[in-house]
Amino acid sequence: MSVKAFKLVSAVEREMLMGDKNHINIECIECCGRNLYIGTNDCFIYHFMLDEKISTSGKITFAATKQLHKYLGFKKPVSELKAASALTRLLVLCDNTITLVNTMNLEPVPTGARIKGAVTFTLNENPVSGDPFCVEVCIISVKRRTIQMFMVFEDRVQIVKEVVTPEQPCAVAVDGYYLCLALTTQYIILNYNTGISQDLFPYCSDEKRPIVKRIGRQEFLLAGPGGLGMFATVDGISQRAPVHWSENVIGAALCFPYVVALDEEFITVHSMLDQQQKQTLPFKEGHILQDFEGKVIVATNKGVYILVPLPLEKQIQDLLASHRVEEALVLAKGARRNIPKEKFQV
């Protein structure tokens, strides 16, 4: 039985991005407040302002206004974008190099500061330095079996640590000193400060794409064997039961109390409270699913969409209306911290 937990709303239409140029594809996205950045296969970055509009009937729509676009000067796709809003910088990965650009005019920083030799990168959302004017960046290096940690400032970068891994890493998420890594044959947790590592479970990166996602303090979500979404803490244990995904999940995101997953044909929504699948949305040709400050965004090669959550109170009322009292109670109790007190009492 399904719950209507999310609505899929278009945010950036194909024409706004590419006009009549069919060869342009969306490679990556980043969203920071109302700012939406899109990286394309022809080495451009597009900056849009997103405005949410609510009609009198309660229907939500998004209007995206194009601010500017910038060519980065390579013949390669823009493969990743991450915003460091405290620094007013966008970190752009293209052709194995991370360049710092200004978030407003998309111009590279005058000092030319960059990180070379990066296959992929992520930011530490639970930083250890305590410096508000710096972001901690973890890269999988082009050097074999090597992870590097950097401190990135407004106009310079500084390497902090280089760690050798037991096998070649292919995906990473960071929390404090802990790295959660997908290696060639398994997932591990590695403390880059002490060098102590812990095996989680086996996984074959040749057969499918690994997913490693930090979902909260000292906790990660991973694509496990047998189509399971597995939770793991930095201590290498799981405090929640896994969710059952399809075998070929491409991306996953968290929007409490739901885990959202994308495969080749559908977006599926599972509850973290009872592990049940609550909603399935047909979605063809999707290749990106990410959450940004609670906003869940999906994209095909040609368009960007936002998964808008329905108010929890409305979901609870719908469950009660269809006599699913147990599920309504589980949702109300589990989501208590996300519901205003007076509404929770009711």
UniProtKB/TrEMBL annotation:
Residues 23-296 form the CNH domain. PROSITE patterns: CNH. The keyword Magnesium does not apply. It is found in: Cytoplasm. GO terms for cellular component: cytoplasm; membrane. InterPro entries: CNH_dom, Vam6/VPS39/TRAP1. GO terms for biological process: autophagy; endosomal vesicle fusion; protein transport. Its main location: cytoplasm. It holds the Pfam family CNH. Keywords: Cytoplasm, Protein transport, Transport. The keyword Transport applies. PANTHER family: CNH DOMAIN CONTAINING (PTHR12894), TRANSFORMING GROWTH FACTOR-BETA RECEPTOR-ASSOCIATED PROTEIN 1 (PTHR12894:SF27). This is TGFA1 protein. It comes from Odontophorus gujanensis (marbled wood quail). The gene is Tgfbrap1_1.
